[in-house]
Amino acid sequence: IRDLLVRGESEEYRAALLAAYLGGESLDRLCDGPIRTAMEKVGELWLENERGIFEEHRATALAVTGMIQLGLMLGSQAGRPLALGGAIRGDHSQLATLMASYVLKDTGFASLNLGANTPAHSFCAAIDTHQPSLVWISANHVQDGAQTLVEVESILGHAKAKNVPVVVGGRGVPLFLGQVPAGLETVQSMGELAAFGKGILRGHGIK
To answer: Quick one: how far is CA 25 from the chain centroid?
Structure first.
């Protein structure tokens, strides 16, 4: 799966990814394993040659379409507790928040992905509208750490007022978050996100 993604072999990659999932591999393990290592590898290619940017963009697009294909296998999860989230303002990446959405859906949530570059006021409006049981924040590309912290604290404060847990993850987290504010959960992998989600579901009486 990793090598097919790096090489951009689209049909073979999607078939291998689907076969692994249908064969019993969990979605969080696929995200943390072959997909993550492939994206780390292509992310370094631009240092080696001028083809690197196109190869990274190709791999990202393929990883997104493969994830959407898997998402179609998960069904609607209608009537389940809702998780919603997205990438924080300034983070234009789509893949990480898409993976978070489907990992939580695979865990047992209904899921609403707000997408990339989502400002705090949009998170808050979505929380008011949809009354979720969990909010996730994806933060991989952070340009202004101070502003990102303001955004995250705004979302956290709004969610806490409604007793909604908030979890944040992504390689950009150390760039804006020193001491973790009370009520904010941090995760370093999709596996940790899945485990946190399962804990929330158990709190709702769902195994």
So the answer is: 18
Beta bridge partners of 187: 169
Q: Do 126 and 101 form a contact (C-beta atoms < 8 A)?
A: no
pLDDT per 10-residue tile (average), the chain, 207 residues? 92 95 95 93 74 84 94 85 97 95 96 97 98 97 91 96 96 87 93 97 86
Could you tell me the two tokens for 96?
Answer: 């990480």
CA distance 78 to 74: 11
Q: How far apart are CA 50 and CA 46, in angstroms?
A: 6
Distance CA(159)–CA(174), nearest Å, equals 22
Question: What's the residue count for the chain?
Answer: 207
**186, β-bridge pairs:** 168
Q: Which residue has the tokens 């989502």?
A: 118
d(CA 71, CA 73): 5
Cβ atoms of 168 and 48 within 8 Å: the answer is no
Q: What is the pTM of this model?
A: 0.93
| pLDDT confidence of residue 204 | 85
Phi-psi group of 168: left, alpha or beta (phi > 0 → left; psi -120 to 50 → alpha; rest → beta)? beta
Sorted by sequence, the CB contacts under 8 Å of residue 73 that are 6+ apart come out as: 18, 21, 22
State the Cα–Cα distance between residues 33 and 17, nearest whole angstrom.
12
Q: How far apart are CA 151 and CA 189, in angstroms?
A: 22
Q: For residue 121, what pLDDT is reported?
A: 98
